[in-house]
Amino acid sequence: MPHKSPRRKSPKSPRRSKTKKTWRDYSKSSQYRMVKTGKIARTSGGLTAADIVKKTDKHGKVRYVSKKKSGRSKGNPALKAWTGALARARKELGFDGSVMPKKTGGTSSQKKLYALAKQHYHGSSRGSPASRTRSGRRYSPR
User: What is the pLDDT of residues 103-129, one digit of tens each?
Assistant: First the structure.
């Protein structure tokens, strides 16, 4: 029987030392989570724990959102006025299901809904251009 020589092992490449991750190496969503839990002080955008809110998304998962983004739709008076006008128009026309308002194209009921909502929106004090203010005073655009 021929003699087998022992198998030679391949030389191992030197291992690189792991460098510590900085906040720039994490995704935006994980940065929010880590800032909220206190692992890092701020996100890459400069948000601190006070600027971030804990919310649940439509799937029931916990997400962290910046306060600015979460409050953008809440504090917008024009958006509130438009949604109120749409609700009022839907009630008047007797629409139960989802009928989306359309300015052009679409069905006649969609156009009716848009026209009536626009009428309510401009009739309301919030949506009318005359009532829009800049820094608390009435103004006229130049």
Answer: 888 889 999 999 999 999 998 655 445
